Amino acid sequence: MQNRAIVFSNNQLDNSKVEEMLIKFGRFDFSVIRCNQFDECLSFVKSTKTECDVSLVFCKNQFIDKFLNKIRSDGDEMSLIFDQAVKLIANSSKLNMVEVSTSDSISDSENSRRMLFLPLELDMATFLNEFLEKRAVHCVSIFGKTASFVEKRFDEFQSVDTEFRYKMITKSQFLHIVYYSQYLDHERLLNIFGDSLFAFSDESLQDMVVELLKKQKLSLAVAEQISAGALTSKIAVADKEFLKRKDGESRETENENERENEKKDEDFVLKKSFILTNFDELDIQNAEIEKFGEVSKEIAYELTKNLLKKSESELAISVIGNASGKCFVAVGNKEEIHVFSTAFEGERQQVLDCICEFALFRLQKFVMEKCINNSN
Question: Could you report how far apart the first and last alpha carbons of the chain are, in Å?
Fold first, then answer.
């Protein structure tokens, strides 16, 4: 029987967080149920205790004792993991009860029914390491394909091998991360998904872009109109997080505030950004706008060309668009500038997210193809 995870929460994000965490653990053998009423959740917990060999209950810390008082039977064995999560081994005359040290990871082959109650407020992955057997998991990140297209391709893998399992997490309309249980040849996947497959990892686009730029020692300038600063924000946050990670690796003992004060502009890949309310800031003439239109490939091209001059960065990207979701992204360096266009539909925030992802995707591809491949 499939193992079960129960999430007692009003927040759908908690459910998604648990699902993603289990998949990253390689645990495709768990079904996840969310409920927001205590009595309903208690009913699931009671049935899970008797039906499933391994089960997880995620709830706020204040409810753990309440659940245990309702379901605990005489002879059930309880222990703590890191003084926070409660491990319960169910008493059963049909089972061989095995006491397991909380300092050791527990193998799924143990002949007992086990439950773990985890507080949502804490880092749940830490407790899972002490309770669940972690299994191999692989993943790919895909941008530009519909969810149905990606699912169909992975369903085909599953139809050939009944042991194959996968889970797709859709971050936005066209950005998907697929986790799967068995290795698939990379060339085969690239032949199926083509240019849309941008990573064999679940690293975010902005983190990938910043890391690439750091490794190649390239600086970046951004001009955005339709995305209203969202693209700049994503890159700036990734930029700072990258530096924090590097600081942690190389200067663990150094005072963090001192290091923060020492950071110079040259530490960051993002050199200049413009949130455009009009195009005068980047020397676009009214005659050009009247000739080509404010949202056009020609204006996007000119914005990036002028941005490269004004910022003195090695790379520049411009993003323009309109309320209908049509957008142009121009990315380039002093040698060449490429312009891409697309259109997205949906709520305003969904469209803005897609536009930012599209811009990051095209920037990542440009760096890979023009800056890295050309230098090899």
Answer: 52
Number of domains in the chain: 3
DSSP H stretches of helix in the chain: 12-24, 38-51, 61-71, 124-131, 147-160, 186-193, 205-216, 230-250, 256-262, 286-292, 297-311, 348-366
152 and 55 inside one domain: no
CA distances from residue 168 to 159, 180, 247, 354 in whole angstroms, order as listed: 16, 9, 34, 18
Q: How many CB atoms lie within 10 A of CB 204?
A: 18
The token pair at 96 is 């061989």
Q: Tens digit of pLDDT for each residue in 245-287?
A: 766 555 444 555 544 444 455 578 999 999 988 899 999 999 9
| Cα-based distances in Å from 293 to 140, 185, 227, 299, 343 | 38, 46, 18, 8, 17
Instruction: Give the residue from 14, 22, 21, 20 showing the smallest Cα distance to 41.
Output: 14
**pTM beyond cutoff 0.70:** yes
pLDDT tens per residue, range 306-315: 999 999 899 9
- Domain holding 226, by residue range, is 205-375
